[in-house]
Structures are given as C-alpha cells and as structure tokens.
Amino acid sequence: MTFALWGALLGGLLAAGILIVAARVRAIRRPRLSERVLPYLRDLSLGERSVPVRQRGVVAGVFGPLLHAAADAVERVLGGARSVEQRLQRAGLDRSVRDFRVEQVLWGLAGFGIAAAYGLLAQLRGRGSPVASLVLCGVGFALGVICRDSRLTSQVRARERQMLAEFPTVAELLSLAVAAGEGPVPALDRVVRRSAGELSRELAHVLADVRTGQPVQEAFDALAARTGIPAVARFASGVAVAVERGTPLSDVLHAQAGDVREAGRRELIETAARKEVLMMLPIVFLVLPVVVVFALWPGVIGLHLSAN
Asked: Is there a contact between 91 and 159 (Cβ–Cβ < 8 Å)?
C-alpha cells in the first residue's frame, strides 16, 4: 500500500472515532428522566426535589460501560463480594463492591500498560518475543488487581491500628463525662464533638442512629459488627449493658481503657522480640564498623609511622 492509501485509512479511522465520541457525548448530555421529573414532585422535600448533580464526566460516560463489564468479569473470576463489602466497611470507604472492582480493573490496566511498555521496548531492542510480551501483560494485569486487594487489606489494618490507638483516650473522656453526671448519650455527644479520628467518626454514626430512634444496644452492636475489633466490640457491649441494666459505666470504661493500654504494651514487647535480629542489623553493620575503625585506625597509623 502507498502512503496515500495509509493516510486515507488512518484519516477514515480518526473520523470514525470522532463521530463515535461525538455521538456518545450527545447521548450523555441528554437530560435524564430523574432530572426532568424530580423538580415537579410535591411530596418530597426541597433537598430531594433538587436536580441531582451529574457525577459522571465524558470520559466516565464513554469508558464507563467497558469498565463496568470488566469489573463484572473480575467479580465472576474472584468472587468474595461479601468479604470485600466487610473490608470496605472496616476501612471506612464509602463505596460499593462494584466501585472497588472498577478500581481493581484500573489498577490492572496500569499494570498492563507498564508491562506492555516494557514488552514494546524489548521488541524494539530485538530481545523479546510476542508470546512472552502477551504473557507479561497478562501477569501485569493480574498483579495490578491483586495489589489493589492487598491495598484494601492494608487500609483496614491501618484504620484498626488507628482506632486502637484512639480508644483509650476516647474511653477515658467518655468515662469522665459519665462520672460528671451526664447520661451515656449526652456524654457520647460531648466526646464526639470534641474529638477527631476514626473512632470518633464511628461513634458519630452510633449517635446518629440513636437520634433517629434506633435503640442504644442495637446501635452499639452495629458498631461492633462494622469495626470487627475485639476491644471496640467489648466497649460496645459494655456500654449497651450499662445503659440497659443501669450498671456503673465509668468503672467499666476505665477498666477497658486500661486493658487496651496493657494490650498495646504487650504487643509492642512481642513485636520487639520478633524483630530482635532486625533491630541488631544497624548496630552490627553500621555502628560497630564505625567504632572499630575509630578504635583501630590510630594504632594502624602509629605502626605505619614507626615502621617508616
């Protein structure tokens, strides 16, 4: 084929792509049914009757169906939607399982792109084969998907560590408020308004559930189910029992805060015992050679001068 034919072919493909994108953008800009109907509904509040803000952009509208299809395929292959949903709740991420699968697809595409770029460079240098490049691209996509799942697990662990670090302080504040004569719910409100952190956000959810009419015991049981942390579960159970039976809450909170602090100390000691060899590496390979050099170098210089 001549250069003119190649140019005509590429021009035709470019024009077809532009027409497809323009048609898709026109379909996206068309008002949805909810946008046309909601402003005229009288039995809804003003906030609910307002026209919803369009969340999707042109790129999301064009590539969204493909990403959702790929996310459904990843869901069928991996499964475990219930586990992913629980981990998303424990990580404090406000998104659905399908949104997480879309993120996994995006991470997989990033890995695929890196592997494809490496394979292309290898092909240009004459060192690779097409089959090996395809296999490498598939491995890159799989690694991207797995890395996003591992990232979610690390987010859960980091949030749980942060909640455990905040728990003694929050429990002590709640205990002081209860000991000062406030009820459990007003004391919880005071602590939530004067603290910040992951545990405070979870307690704010509990407070919102209680104010909407949910019983205190059920609200704290939901907190224990969302977090999955044994210390927080014991705290929720203690508060629920104290509210239901009228038992002293201040002593229970003090004891739980002390138990969490003691558990933190034990965990720190166990971590130091497990990593004793790693802690010795800087001393053996950095500090000790410097000490030896400073101790022996003057003697070596003295012997060299005396020999001369």
From this structure: yes
